Amino acid sequence: MTAPRGRRMIRLLGWLLTPVVVWAASFLGGWVVAIATSADRGTIGIIQLTVGAVIGGTVGMLGWLVVMRRGRAEPDVTSPEGKP
Residues with Cβ < 8 Å from 78, sequence gap 6 or more? Predict the structure, then answer.
C-alpha cells in the first residue's frame, strides 16, 4: 500500500529542501571555524573558513539524509489478523 498523498508531499518537500539545509550547515560551519580560530590572517583565514564550510556542509548533509531516510520506513497497514 502506498503512503497517503499528504505524507508523500511532505517527503517531497523535505527532499527539495536538502540543498537549503546543506547550504545553511556549510555557512554555519564556516562561521563557527572563523570565530573559533579568529580567522583574520588573510589567506589562512579564507582557507580555514573554506574547510569549516566543507566540514559543516558534509555533516549537515549526512544528518539531513538520516532524518529523511528515517521517515521512509512506513508502518505495515495490513496485519495477518486484518487489523490496521
Answer: 1, 84
Number of domains present in the structure of the chain: 1
Cα–Cα dist 82/45, whole Å: 63
Q: pTM (2 decimals)?
A: 0.69
Confirm whether 25 is domain-assigned.
yes
Residues 16-66: tens digit of each pLDDT? 998 999 999 999 998 888 888 876 678 888 888 899 999 999 999 999 888
Cell numbers for 3, please give them: 503512503
The rounded distance, in Å, linking the Cα atoms of 57 and 63 is: 10
Q: How many CB atoms lie within 10 A of CB 53?
A: 21
Q: Is residue 46 part of a domain?
A: yes
